[in-house]
Amino acid sequence: MDDWRDLAACRDEDPDLFFPISDTGRSLAQTRRAKSVCHRCPVREPCLRWALRTGQAAGIWGGTTEAERRVFSRQSTG
Fold it and tell me: Where is the 4Fe-4S Wbl-type domain (predicted)?
């Protein structure tokens, strides 16, 4: 697979969906919608690996939130 992004389910979605402004209130519904796109994505794992490797601090990547990726990062370095 040369570029996993070519196969991403999010290619046809509004990019703003994947960048909720908070992790409370109405943003929780936005996060759930973004994650539902990720959960049906055939390249979810490469997306998550890329986000972890490149230190993506904002947004939903590979079906994970910023906080969830911080946990992954701590587990891999600890």
Answer: 9-71
User: Does 10 carry a binding-site annotation?
Assistant: yes
Annotated binding-site residue? 28: no
What is the Cα–Cα distance from 46 to 69, expressed in whole angstroms? 14
Strand partners, 61: 64
64 DSSP 8-state letter = B
CA–CA separation, 61 and 34 (whole Å): 9
Please tell me the distance from the alpha carbon of residue 77 to that of residue 32, in angstroms, as a whole number.
28
7 vs 74, residue with greater confidence: 7
CB burial of residue 60 (10 Å; 0-12, 13-18, 19+): buried
pLDDT of res. 75:
74
Contact in structure between 20 and 31 (CB atoms under 8 Å)? yes
